[in-house]
Amino acid sequence: MSADITPGSVPSEGVEAGGWTGAVRRGAVRAFPPDKLLPDRQPSYVASWIYVFGVLTLAALAVVIGTGCVLALKGPGWWHVSSTGRYVNALHLWSVELFMAFMVIHLWGKFFMAAWRGRRAMTWITGAVAFTASVGTAFTGYLTQQNFDSQWISTQAKDGLNSVGIGAFFNVLDFGQMLMWHIVLLPLALVGLTVWHVLLVRHRGVVPPIPLLTAGDAPEGDPAAEAGDEGGGS
Amino acid sequence: MATPHTFAVAMASVDLNRPGHYLHWGVILISVANLVVIGIMILLFVLALVLPFPKGRGRG
Question: Residue A232's CB: how many other CB atoms inside 10 A?
Answer without folding.
Answer: 22
